[in-house]
Amino acid sequence: MCGCTHSTQDQALHLEGDPSLSAAPTSTLAPRKMPKSISVSKQLASVKALRKGSDLEKAIATIALIFRNSSDPDGKLGKATAKNLLQTQFRNFTEGQETKPKYKDLLSELDEHTENKLDFEDFMILLLSITVTSELLQNIWSVKIMK
């Protein structure tokens, strides 16, 4: 989708080995050896950098963990797995979009993806694209904030 040579996941894993970056959060991903049966909330709690993290940081870390838990050993998602994640984990953003041209275009891009697998970066682009075209986003923006 984006054509980048390194996924965000690969970059995060690369940075973990650099001792000069030890003061910065090394990764929002679960350690490689963490069993997938451990809940995402427990995996999030195990990432020290997120203990005082913002809601946005925790949201992105949650996406990264769900991706990681669903990916193959190479850190990529097959198309069927990606579609399943969209239907199960992103249902409120995808519901009712199935007949809309923009949504159909996004899914057809997924079907035409030449590698047959998505890395984390491509998956994030897909999620953001679906978010931007969803009716749920329009509903969220129309919420009046009480002061």
Automatic annotation (TrEMBL):
Entries under CDD domains matching the protein: S-100 (cd00213)
Give the region (Disordered) as residue ranges: 1-35
Q: Which InterPro entries match?
A: EF-hand-dom_pair, EH_dom, S-100_dom, S100_Ca-bd_sub
Query: Record's SMART domains?
Result: S_100
Domain EH intervals = 99-147
**Ranges of compositional bias, category Polar residues:** 1-11
Origin, by domain of life?
A: Eukaryota
What protein name applies here? EH domain-containing protein
Which organism is the protein's source?
A: Felis catus (Cat)
